[in-house]
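Handout, section 4.2: multi-component inputs.
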Amino acid sequence: MKRAVPYIALVVCVGSGYLGYLAAVKIVYQYKQSTWFSSLEKQEAEQLRKTGQATLAFSLSTLSIQNTPLSIQNNVGSLAKIRSKAPQELWPVLDLRLAKDYAMMARLEQQAGEQGAAAEHQQSAKALLRSLGWQDVSDKSMTDLAEGQLRSSLKR
Amino acid sequence: MKQAMKITFAVAAIIGFVVGAVLGCYRASEASGFMQSAEVISIPSVASDFALQQFEHADSAHARQAVLLEIKILKQLERAAYDRSSGGRLGFEYTRLAMIEEAAGQKEAGRRALDEARGRLTLVYPREELTDERMKNMLKLLDGASNRL
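Output:
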């Protein structure tokens, strides 16, 4: 037992260190985050922090889109999560990305001969774009939008 | 013996916790700075892309809403002193707003937006003669460059 004491003490030390590290990271990060944009009024600063979190998550999610139905579907799921936490004024921004994702999915499904799914996704894209005030939501403009997105590596 | 062991373990736990906490504080400060910078970069970029696309495709009401959202966000960042380039950006977004208002037949609102744009852009381009057409052409050039990305 006596011989094991230094080893047990080492394990206790490392374990406590890990706990201390996790606790400090969480507490200090949350504190620091709460002070961002502190020169603005409290409510406005909070709104801007939420906007920042949503736009960063949106940018990262958009960066990871590949030209495959699975990747696009994953992005649709991510957008739903981001939307649930984002300020309402950012919803149209997320809806536009969602419409582009549906348009891309429709195009890929058309090319794969899955006409039923393609038509459904194209309708979803059109409905979202109409709600955003887009003036041309014809089949041709949907195809152009999807082709442009599929060609682009940035997916803006 | 038992007492000595207890003390040893307690001291080990305290040392471990303190060292871990110090490292955690350092890491959290670093991460906070990095994340704040990333968010400050992403906010105007996302808002600007959206405003441009709505300007090109949507009706006046929706395009106006998008550009006003960007202007609001840029002004907040400007007041929070995080975006030093916001003067130029705001100038161009007021130019965009003016173009939307003019297209919607709101001449007076368009005039006010152009005056605001000129005030902002003069600070950034003090040697340029900023006529209405010049500002609109500069915005079209910027939009063209942005679309080619």
